[in-house]
Input
Amino acid sequence: MRTNRKGFTVSVLLTMSMLLAACGGNGNTKGTTDTGNAGQTGTGAEATAAAKDVTLEFWTIALQPTFNDYFNDLIAKYEGSHPGVKVEWKDYPYDAISQRLLTSTASGKSPDVVNLNTEFASQLGSKGALLDLNEYLTDEQAKSYFEGIYNSTVLGGKAYALPWYTGTEVLFMNKKLVEKAGLDPANPPQTREELVEWARQVHEKTGAAGYAQQLVSKLFPIDGIQILNEDKTAAAFNTPEAEAMIAQMRDLMKEGVVLKEDADFSKQIQYFSGEQVAFQLSGPTFINFIKTSAPDVYKNTIAVPLPTGKANLRLSNSMNLVVPQKSKNPKEAVEFAAFITNAENQTAFSKVANTLPSSKASIQDSFFTESDGSLEAEAKVASSQSLDKATDYMVGVPSAADINSALTRGLQEILMNGADIKETLNKVEKEVNNIISQGS
Output
């Protein structure tokens, strides 16, 4: 199971968009879903029994065979409470689902419920390929998810996905280095500005850097800088605020407070394991790597909620459930997607999969609030506490990967090669606008 997917190719998305964009709506049946998202499963037996028998085709990404027992039980429970409905569960590798979705749709055999990440759910929704779930959900159901995560796939007032399992980054701290620097790990930094000051003090007192980071587009929204304008037709990042953010990063690298490197995840593991940095901004999966590569450092590491930047948000990495426009059973498909993502079932899945739920009610479970003192439990609790400020930030256009690459190259030119900030932002702005115009 992965939550960070390099997804569909641009050509596949464009082809699929042409196939699906002409699909009409399936009728407004708002409020007819019988499966609440606040931990109440409901049956809907009478309504379903009166309808014709249907078979729902349900696709997931890389969940078999690890979670076979969970899903087989879940499907049996749903079928038992919904006479006349059968669910066929199919699971595909993340790099194969795009082509299969394209092929099945082109042949007139669209699946009914599909597991997609936020980026591609948004892309397909923007092309008219997905059902607008607002026509089926009650306000109570829509509001049962964390707002920032739910709204990540709302475009033009249309909701194209139900949030499912998710994850957020936390701040891992080397307790030994932090205490050596005279800092109190029991009172960790709450903001990025405070984290910078902690990193500076660590560097001055211990010689270690504060942290390493990858030069990626998410650095902009963390600081409240939009990458694209509201209707996603042009670049919006070339601002004085962006110049100031990059200039500060450049200065921190010169000081040695932040490592002067475009450090991918494997490099970040290496630096933290070698105690070359005191902090790591990452998801809980980071624990598995340091536990193996540096058991002594693992024992000395604690996890706390990630400090927020000027936007006062934390970025999540979510998986969702969508209903393609060409589903022959839209009402039943939405009901099943709502059942999978209700609070009761999200809580149960999180417990077996060690993920975070997107349902507000799920977080009230003691599983997400109590720690046994282990690093794994600390990270889980810290991640859970971050969900109220979580949002998926994807540009939501077929050219997202190209736009992200352009921003990365620009950051590399400035921070690694000393290019002028304003000139480079001007150049990248033109490149991004060209990418958008070519993809429209």
